[in-house]
Amino acid sequence: MEKCYLMTAVVLLGLTVRWTVSLNSYSANLCTSCRYLLPGAGKPPMFGDYEAQRHWQEITINLPIKQWYFNGSDNNLQYWGLDYPPLTAYHSLLCAYVAKFINPDWIALHTSRGYESQAHKLFMRATVLIADLLIYIPAVVLYCCCLKEISTKKKIANALCILLYPGLILIDYGHFQYNSVSLGFALWGVLGVSYDWDLLGSLAFCLAINYKQMELYHSLPFFCFLLGKCFKKGLKGKGFVLLIKLACTVVASFILCWLPFFTEREQTLQVLRRLFPVDRGLFEDKVANIWCTFSVFLKIRDILPHHIQLMISFCFTFLSLLPACIKLTLHPSPRGFRFTLVSCALSFFLFSFQVHEKSILLVSLPVCLVLREIPFMSTWFLLVSTFSMLPLLLKDELLMPSVVTVIAFFIACATSFSIFEKTSEEELQLKSFSISVRKYFPCFTFLPRIIQHLFLISVITMVLLTLMTVTLDPPQKLPDLFSVLVCFVSCLNFLFFLVYFNIIIMWDSKNGRNQKKIN
Amino acid sequence: MAALGVATGGGNWFSALALGVTLLKCLLIPTYHSTDFEVHRNWLAITHSLPISQWYYEATSEWTLDYPPFFAWFEYALSHVAKYFDQEMLNVRNLNYCSSRTLLFQRFSVIFTDTLFVYAVHECCKCIDGKKAGRELTEKPKFILSVLLLWNFGLLIVDHIHFQYNGFLSGLMLLSIARLFQKRHMEGAFLFAVLLHFKHIYLYVAPAYGVYLLRSYCFTANKPDGSIRWNSFSFLRLISLGLIVFLVSALSLGPFLALNQLPQVFSRLFPFKRGLCHAYWAPNFWALYSALDKVLSVIGLELKFLDPSKIPKASMTSGLVQQFQHTVLPSVTPLATLICTLIAILPSIFCLWFKPQGPRGFLRCLILCALSSFMFGWHVHEKAILLAVLPMSLLSVGKAGDASIFLILTTTGHYSLFPLLFTAPEKKNLFLIGWKLSTSLAWGLWKSSVNLYSLSPLGS
């Protein structure tokens, strides 16, 4: 009983933090009069995503389905055209019906462009909160409650830390997006598949992909894990049955979501064109991945032709995630599955095409899931992931909420998991690796200390860069200096984590041998 | 790394709680704030730019100085920091001036002065007997009390959204209570005297202090059956207490006495022209009285017992601060409210005098004085409920019966604060969430404390 109250208190605390962050958006006009007010002009980036979502409500409710993804007189694709899969469109339609009931002006065709009012902002923020409350938060609570071999207090502390993760809160409630829907569905997928509810898990994951195509980053681990399960059950018996059932589930869910768009070939192709804009280039703006960092030294975007860029990114991505995926297929386990999710998503983030900085959230979700197992490294990663979005957050004037939520998250993790006491080889899951290395280099005992020092250096660099970005002006010749530095530092950190997580996966000797310990 | 581990890991939950709530306060910076924000900016301007002789006469703004002199000195001290944030806010003529730096400064000043409140909570925790507690952190009374006080929802919304400085004032009150619990009576008396000169609303609980100190401190011993032993009276103690009160008052009111401004100061401190009920009704007895009067007048008009032309125009429900005459029931004068209040506090005062039960009895009497004054006082603000809720938290961790009363008090008290939050976003969601948070927290913690204390004897 007490567990219920404490969990409720944790959820409510999470909701309170989310709502207070969402009050920040119009910070540019914080106090032109002493009443909380109507903004004169919204801030461009938030105006961007906020206006995009409002525009999609306008499009979906006023136009027939066939026109949603097409350029036309009523639907100018250059002005925030739909570029997410159909489920986002259906969600926008649902919100639009509610908006129509409250105030039709909000979604009137053409005339509602750039519409801003206090009531409308409240409505939009509420839609994010409701979506979060219905999909993401129950998944987190259920995940923590189902964890085995830990005390109730630790489960609740785990839920607190995951719910306080700053990146998701700042992007969804500050910047304005609906990542909690797709991440929530993905988490339901992870839950289902880890606890042998394979069909439901696949269904949930298909919904996630059909909400945001970036969830494809997670698709390979799901595929390998389920394939591995089928192999284990025997491809000539139950395994084959499972494989067929899964295939049917996936196909059925895709057909269901895309039904209106399967009527004509052109419809389907147009949607795919909107979803995967391969013309746009290797990367856009500043993002903490390899290509952007590399382009500081060598402008590969300009040197190499388009299709070569595509091929290189494809090769690097798949080469980096192949080992983990093969291992998962051969030795499927929920634990391996979680770590492979991290490693795959990170590989995609670092090497893939047209990656946005917000895609780091796709890596952060699986890392939240392994918070309990490697608290020190997970906390470190989650801090870096929030830091990597610093230029975006500063553009939205979210400095205060960012700093506050990061500190709060850090304190929550530090007190819940005693992270600084868990830096031994065993705690970092590096024991098998170290033993292997010590066969060749007997003096290799300093790994934990190196990692601790790296952590300190990383944190100090992040703090310094944040201070510099906020207080100093960049030099005239290099106006993007600080953004590039942030991306560079984050990228180095991410590369380190990629290597680390891959080491854990490959040297995980517990799999296959000791079934009891698998969780 | 090990040192960091000890600092952050360990059992230092108190720091984590204090730091956590401070971070939440930082998140509340851009929320709605009321006219109280302009009030305090105006007082910063008055105390900074004008000489002392003008402080209680200045009336450029409608928000004149109506707190005792120590608070004015506090604003004066703050203004010296304010000038580094934004010089313009210190100009008396800049009415409704509100730059982002002003906002930041004011909000941070409240957050910073709450340090005193945190210290006071820490001292109160020391007064709690935690020996019977279980091993779980959430069952320890110290933990429960810290959560109930540090994360007090009413204080959060009144101080950090509506904008006031109740945090450090409540800290002073809790600190003086803690000192009395620790048998450091002189310090307790001194702190209370200082508090009175910061905000005179604490006069509500002055009788409790007066009677307790007289009965339990000036009379050094009791007879075996607990009744008063007249020959144990200590003049020395009485004189030292009186001296403390006198010196503090002299320090506060002295300058104004020298300037012959005492009547003006008192007229600002006790503005009886403001009317029986505050702008947004405090849920006290007079609100019910006025509602009844309204109902009767409507019925009277319908049944043609009353003459419409004789009904006064001013409405109690209009949200304005002004004098008001009742239509059907007799009008209420300040004297009447005083008499009602005195009658209401008499039983608890009698108990405190004739059957003193040490500091716990004093605390109970204090809460009852605060509640009685809230119910029957003249021009009571809704925020005054915090005067009762905060000390009640101290009692609630001691006995199951007190905990259940506390649950009702805190829920209704915090609910009654809703009208303070004006705008849609805050009102609709944050309060529902925060109220649910505090209720569920209080409920959960009460449950665990009930389990703990179900077998303890009923007396303190």
Automatic annotation (TrEMBL), chain A:
<keyword id="KW-0328">Glycosyltransferase</keyword>
<feature type="transmembrane region" description="Helical">
    <location>
        <begin position="239"/>
        <end position="261"/>
    </location>
</feature>
<feature type="transmembrane region" description="Helical">
    <location>
        <begin position="481"/>
        <end position="507"/>
    </location>
</feature>
<protein>
    <recommendedName>
        <fullName>Alpha-1,3-glucosyltransferase</fullName>
        <ecNumber>2.4.1.-</ecNumber>
    </recommendedName>
</protein>
<comment type="pathway">
    <text>Protein modification; protein glycosylation.</text>
</comment>
<keyword id="KW-0256">Endoplasmic reticulum</keyword>
<keyword id="KW-0732">Signal</keyword>
<keyword id="KW-0812">Transmembrane</keyword>
<feature type="transmembrane region" description="Helical">
    <location>
        <begin position="185"/>
        <end position="209"/>
    </location>
</feature>
<dbReference type="GO" id="GO:0042281">
    <property type="term" value="F:dolichyl pyrophosphate Man9GlcNAc2 alpha-1,3-glucosyltransferase activity"/>
</dbReference>
<keyword id="KW-0472">Membrane</keyword>
<dbReference type="InterPro" id="IPR004856">
    <property type="entry name" value="Glyco_trans_ALG6/ALG8"/>
</dbReference>
<feature type="signal peptide">
    <location>
        <begin position="1"/>
        <end position="22"/>
    </location>
</feature>
<dbReference type="Pfam" id="PF03155">
    <property type="entry name" value="Alg6_Alg8"/>
</dbReference>
<feature type="transmembrane region" description="Helical">
    <location>
        <begin position="122"/>
        <end position="144"/>
    </location>
</feature>
<keyword id="KW-0808">Transferase</keyword>
<feature type="transmembrane region" description="Helical">
    <location>
        <begin position="310"/>
        <end position="330"/>
    </location>
</feature>
<comment type="function">
    <text>Dolichyl pyrophosphate Man9GlcNAc2 alpha-1,3-glucosyltransferase that operates in the biosynthetic pathway of dolichol-linked oligosaccharides, the glycan precursors employed in protein asparagine (N)-glycosylation. The assembly of dolichol-linked oligosaccharides begins on the cytosolic side of the endoplasmic reticulum membrane and finishes in its lumen. The sequential addition of sugars to dolichol pyrophosphate produces dolichol-linked oligosaccharides containing fourteen sugars, including two GlcNAcs, nine mannoses and three glucoses.</text>
</comment>
<feature type="transmembrane region" description="Helical">
    <location>
        <begin position="156"/>
        <end position="173"/>
    </location>
</feature>
<feature type="transmembrane region" description="Helical">
    <location>
        <begin position="441"/>
        <end position="469"/>
    </location>
</feature>
<dbReference type="GO" id="GO:0005789">
    <property type="term" value="C:endoplasmic reticulum membrane"/>
</dbReference>
<keyword id="KW-1133">Transmembrane helix</keyword>
<feature type="transmembrane region" description="Helical">
    <location>
        <begin position="398"/>
        <end position="420"/>
    </location>
</feature>
<feature type="transmembrane region" description="Helical">
    <location>
        <begin position="360"/>
        <end position="383"/>
    </location>
</feature>
<comment type="similarity">
    <text>Belongs to the ALG6/ALG8 glucosyltransferase family.</text>
</comment>
